[in-house]
User: What shape does this take?
Amino acid sequence: MKTFEVAVIGGGLAGMIAAVALGRGGRNVALIAPSAPREDRRTTALMDQSIRFLDRLTLWDRLKPAASPLATMRIIDGTNRLLRAPTATFRSAEVGLEAFGYNFPNRALMDVLEAAVATEGNITRFTAFADAIEVSADRVAITLSDGEAMVADFAIGADGRKSKLRETVGIDTRNWSYPQSAMVLNFAHSLPHESISTEFHTESGPFTQVPLPGRRSSLVWVQNPSDAQARSELSLAELSNVVEERMQSLLGKVTVEEGVQIWPLSSMMAHRSGKGRVALIGEAAHVFPPIGAQGLNLSLRDVMALTDILCARLELPIAADTGNQFDRKRRADIMTRTASVDVLNRSLLSDFLPMQVLRAAGLHILAAVPPFRSIVMREGIEPGRGFRDIPAAIRERLGRKKA
Ligand SMILES: Cc1cc2nc3c(=O)[nH]c(=O)nc-3n(C[C@H](O)[C@H](O)[C@H](O)COP(=O)(O)OP(=O)(O)OC[C@H]3O[C@@H](n4cnc5c(N)ncnc54)[C@H](O)[C@@H]3O)c2cc1C
Assistant: This one.
């Protein structure tokens, strides 16, 4: 029977990146990953911290040609409410960066990962499903859908929101849904986007345009499910007009491309991210609405934490409580991000006046008060960075005042 140090179950973006990171970190990895579907037309925006991680894994140079920088982020209050917030504009140069992050088609990252996995000597790929999994105190035994069997010292569940590994070890989840769907599409436009991403806040959710290379952008439009359905039935020419009107023609003439998708909005959080010889990453551990580009960024922080734990002392056997260590390390970040996406989304949906006051006041402060802007921008790029940088920001301001 084949034996491995680590088995990664699931070959979505999270699982593929975990396999590459652990393989390059020196572990002997089994990647159990049926081929990814070719039709994923979504794009993903990864923030600076994630891009630096891809760079350390030598994946970024190959992905960069397919990616567009996000140098400016603009939030426009597109509601018809009494209390409307001012437009808030954030520039990456304000925090000393060329870009907050980059946006690229999921397919482009998957192609780069497939090539990396194929050439990484520490990874053995199995293009089958994990069919039966047994976890004991000293190993994990896995039987694949094609009958092959293997054992590993440790297993990583990157097998999505219905994770079989999570179910096998009896980790419960909390699930909730929102009365919204996300319409996801890509479009060409006649004016350049100048690396600006614009988010219109509307009563039914955010309408977010994110730049792609050239005169193209992607759109995640969160709306009422029946409106999303009706709009998805329009011809591409009609939908292009609707999108252009919503964009207030900021990007000129819009041409929506084939492949409009609708994603019902829901969230899920596993009660824990690991125990014993098992860790859960990506959507096996946390799912939330595609608002604020959080999902894969959070998953990459899962992978970074796991790589730190599993690759720090390669000469030692993998400890039986590694999953517990991982859970402790990841809990605060996962809870904070899940809660902040939830609050942001609900603050838009709510007609409750105090909530509207808070939302508008929050955006006012962000638009007008530089130290808050700076903290929020740094926090958005990398958790902890905004607060870590406060002393430096204060010193910088005091220095400026003296000068
Ligand atoms: C519309 C939309 C837009 C988004 N935009 C962004 C963004 O801009 N920025 C961002 O950071 N995040 C974004 N996200 C989130 C991001 O796409 C996901 O977090 C990311 O794709 C990670 O998914 P995953 O690999 O965990 O899960 P999945 O993609 O679901 O992969 C799970 C894999 O496991 C496999 N699998 C399942 N069961 C088994 C088994 N028994 N054995 C073996 N394999 C198995 C499946 O076949 C699948 O390939 C977005 C999400 C959506 C829905």
